């Protein structure tokens, strides 16, 4: 009920209003946006926040922001193979490059490191929608692997996340607190396909309704449960 609106807030130029509404007393730390292609029309974005009263820090990734970016993203994913992810497994090059463009070139990594150093005992929540969900998953693995923050104080919640990497990459998220929320009518979680070597990570939370607060959902078994979004 809190993280989905925050994932939506990442699409705003200024997420402060939504952040204050969902987590009164929290503070926007910094927002990042950087061009991802040569024309500058496609950008990647994320923001970080701190909530001292609830002892939580947050990292929120924006999803695909335009029809042009969606077309570019889909073509790039379907026409390219996989690449080795530096922290384990193989992932889609588009997701990898988008994430590290934000993490390294835009300065997101330094900002997250500073937050985690300042608040080592706070719980880190990472979230994102669609493309943002893929980058959030990459970030969770990278942060744990790099020792930036403890997996015991970190949770990943993604919404409409596409398949991000292969089975080895998915296993890296299965030991941590990771939830992948999927709606029955969303096509994005079904790409890239398993026949291309991709595998979802757990734990899938599957909705077949309007996802209003209190709506029933199914907690799925494994990473590709045939009784959930794969059916």
TrEMBL record:
Fungal lipase-type domain mapped to chain residues: 59-194
GO BP annotations, alphabetical order: lipid metabolic process
InterPro entries, per database record: AB_hydrolase_fold (IPR029058), Fungal_lipase-type (IPR002921)
Highest taxon, organism lineage: Eukaryota
SUPFAM superfamilies, sorted: alpha/beta-Hydrolases
Protein name from the UniProt record: Fungal lipase-type domain-containing protein
């Amino acid at each position: 009920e809190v993280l989905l609106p925050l994932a939506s807030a990442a699409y705003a130029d200024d997420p402060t209003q939504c952040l204050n509404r969902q987590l009164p007393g929290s503070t926007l730390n910094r927002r990042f946006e950087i061009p991802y292609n040569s024309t500058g029309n496609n950008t990647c974005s994320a923001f970080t926040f701190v909530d001292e009263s609830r002892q939580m820090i947050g990292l929120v990734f924006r999803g695909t922001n335009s029809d042009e970016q969606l077309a570019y993203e889909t073509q790039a994913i379907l026409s390219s193979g996989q690449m080795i992810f530096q922290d384990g497994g193989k992932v889609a090059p588009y997701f990898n490059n988008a994430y590290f463009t934000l993490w390294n070139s835009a300065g997101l990594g330094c900002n997250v490191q500073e937050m985690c150093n300042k608040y080592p005992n706070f719980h880190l929540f990472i979230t994102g929608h669609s493309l943002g969900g893929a980058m959030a998953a990459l970030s969770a693995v990278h942060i744990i692997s790099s020792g930036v923050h403890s997996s015991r104080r970190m949770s990943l919640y993604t919404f409409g996340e596409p398949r991000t990497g292969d089975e080895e990459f998915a296993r890296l998220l299965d030991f941590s607190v990771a939830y992948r929320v999927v709606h029955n009518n969303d096509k994005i979680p079904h790409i890239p396909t398993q026949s291309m070597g991709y595998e979802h990570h757990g734990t899938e939370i599957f909705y077949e309704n309007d996802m209003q607060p209190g709506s029933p959902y199914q907690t799925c078994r494994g990473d590709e449960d045939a009784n959930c979004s794969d059916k």
